[in-house]
Amino acid sequence: MLSQRLPTMLPLFLFMAHVIIMATAEPPLRPGYYSETCPKAESTVRKVMKEAMIREPRSGASVMRFQFHDCFVNGCDGSLLLDDTADMLGEKLSLSNINSLRSYEVVDEIKEALENVCPGIVSCADIIIMASRDAVALSGGPNWEVKLGRLDSLTASQEDADNIMPSPRANASYLIDLFSKYNLSVKDLVALSGSHSIGNGRCFSIVFRLYNQSGSGRPDPTIEPKFRKKLDKLCPLGGDGNVTGDLDATPQVFDNQYFKDLVNGRGFLNSDETLFTFEQSREYVRQFSAYQEEFFKAFVDGMVRMGDLQSGRPGEIRKNCRVVNSRQPELLSDAWRKRKYMSSG
Predict the structure, then answer these.
(1) Of 42, 76, 188, 305, whose CB count within 10 A is highest?
(2) Statement: the pTM of the whole predicted model exceeds 0.70
(3) Which of the following is catalytic: 69, 187, 202, 318?
(4) Quick one: angle between helices 186-193 and 172-180, nearest 10?
């Protein structure tokens, strides 16, 4: 996560509007996209995700977050996965991702498995969408049908990631404004924040809450006292910022405990707890804390809407999710035209 800032440049706002428009202007994504070209695609992704989560339980939460960090920056195009090159600074080392996102190797394993089953067919962008869904389902959360048919981007932008992605210091008002630029509602924001039902956060992201909230030199008064003592011990002033703590009381189970914790002043991140202290989002927190099925439904709706964000730029099916294929421009154009035809078929 990065220090809070408002994207102030007009081109950035124009681009975000373009992403929203293209979500409806491009050939529509659809369920079962690979039913003929790679019928084992979804089962292969699920199998590798299950194995990865058995090996390292935290990988579920890590992979699930790829969808947020990919789709918000130039649409759901797999740009997040590209490694830096001599002439391109990608998104992995952006302020929102460095020392935060992990488990890229799980996507590599999924891609390798898919290339063995049906080479050159399944995009890395679609892998993120499927793997995010599977991470939730395998953690005890809802399962849903995903829409597929994305292309992989030809580039990535660290600058765009820095300008767009929110900070753990962000408040609900800022987040509501950001989400609205992607046609995502307050309810979507609160439900999608429930992704923090699983996983961990770093001390780096909360030391300001514990010792200098809003420059006051004092802790955030909304933190429940016993919980604050626990966090003080975990994250002492001047301690290791990379030490991690649980984002809710059941960090390996996707449930509505996250919202119950927010109601009780036990949110780990400022951007989480502020959802309850802010009037416009508070009632959704209360609702989801009381009714898990309503949270699950709203979360699925939000994930599907977020997955619809597309940039409209030409792309390809990467052979390796970390690097762009070496192809002639005319072949890229042919792949683009073929993909549009398949999407409309």
Answers:
(1) 76
(2) yes
(3) 69
(4) 110
Q: What are the 10-residue block averages of pLDDT along the chain, 345 residues in total?
A: 39 45 60 97 98 95 96 96 93 86 95 98 98 98 98 94 89 95 97 97 94 93 97 96 96 97 97 96 98 98 97 92 72 50 46
User: How far is residue 60's CA from residue 199's CA, in Å, rounded to a whole number?
Assistant: 8
Query: Around 327, how many Cα atoms within 13 Å sit in the side-chain half-sphere?
Result: 17
69 is catalytic: yes
CA-based torsion, 322, 181, 285, 211: positive or negative: positive
Q: CA-to-CA distance for 267 and 215, rounded, in angstroms? A: 20
Q: How far is CA 253 from CA 9, 67, 138, 260, 294, in A?
A: 40, 19, 9, 14, 17
Question: Which residues have C-beta within 8 Å of that of residue 88, sequence separation ≥ 6?
Answer: 82, 155, 156
